[in-house]
Every structure is written in C-alpha cells, then in structure tokens.
Amino acid sequence: MSTFKHATGMFHSPQRHYWRNTEDAKGTYARPATMDTPEGMQPAVAVFNDKFIRGVYSLDEALRIATQMADSIAYHKQKEAS
What we know:
The protein is of the alpha+beta class. It contains 2 helices and 5 strands; from the N terminus they run ββαβββα. The strands form 2 sheets. Strands 3-4-5 form a 3-stranded antiparallel sheet. Strands 1-2 form a two-stranded antiparallel sheet. The mean pLDDT is 90.
C-alpha cells in the first residue's frame, strides 16, 4: 500500500509498485485539447496513458500540476546537491 507521510509532505510508493510506476510513466503523455464549459469551448490539456485518457484539465489546472511537478523535481535536485 502506498503511503503519504504527513510530517514531511512526502508521498512514498513501495517497491512492489516500481515496475508498474515506471511502465505507466513511459506511456503517459499530454496533448493540447479543448473542453466544453458553461462559458463555451476553452483550451485545455489532455493527459493520456497509452491510448486511455486520464484527464482533461483547464490551462490553469494543468499549469498548477506542472508547477507542482517542477517543484518536486527541484526539491530532489536540491537534496542531491546538498
């Protein structure tokens, strides 16, 4: 079972999920998209895993997620450099 360590904010995925996680990552990609909203059609980002859609996000939400990913990478890079 994956756990979330509240004290550090660090999510931990156990070794038994390693191969699934790495294979999922290889097949995950994003493409420009549009989405219908109450205000009309809006630009969006679609995230896929292989041929299956994982989600369609507004540009604001896609940027929020991308920023969190970049911040997570920077966190690990900083720890490596220390």
